[in-house]
Amino acid sequence: MYDEMMRAEVWLQEQLGSQQGIEDLAGRLGYSTSQVRRRFKQCFGLSPSAYRDTLRLEKAAQLLAFTPYPIHTIAMRCGYLNHSAFSRAFQRLHELTPRQFRRAFHAKLYANAQRLPASDSPAS
């Protein structure tokens, strides 16, 4: 059982941007959707969809922090077809909207860069 659920975890990570669902995963593993949900939750403490949503939102946070992509593009790249649904889900997890998260991250980066000693700064 553990090996199948590890395969399920890898599959979920690989399918973050797609719209494939638990039915597709169950078909690949040869189980019913209820078996996959139950076994996945036993192994990881989360349902497959909750796990996938968490991965998507972590990827979105990285893209917001380290890329200039517009928020709607990040939403699409992380598997959200609806910008509003993405923003609500992101805010539930991070307690900031995607725009607030990006601004706060960049402000923190800038503040940290200002504290670097002159010998450590990139311009030296």
Number of strands: 0
Compute the separation of the termini in Å: 56 Å
What structural class results from the helix and strand content?
Answer: mainly alpha
Overall average residue pLDDT: 90
Shape: elongated
Give start-end ranges of low-pLDDT stretches.
none
User: Considering DSSP H and I runs of 4 or more, what fraction of the residues is helical?
Assistant: over 70%
The H-and-E topology, N to C, reads as: HHHHHHH
Describe the structure.
The protein is an all-alpha fold and 124 residues long. Helix content is 71%, strand content 0%. It contains seven helices and no strands. It has helices spanning 2-14, 22-29, 33-44, 48-66, 71-77, 83-94, 98-114. Helix 2 crosses helix 3 (33-44) and helix 4 packs across helix 6 (83-94). It is elongated. The model has no long low-confidence stretch (mean pLDDT 90).
Structural key phrases:
single chain; 124 residues; mainly alpha; elongated
Element layout with pairings:
Layout: H1 2-14, H2 22-29, H3 33-44, H4 48-66, H5 71-77, H6 83-94, H7 98-114
Outline of the structure:
The chain has 124 residues and is mainly alpha-helical. The protein has helices at 2-14, 22-29, 33-44, 48-66, 71-77, 83-94, 98-114. The chain has 7 helices and no strands.
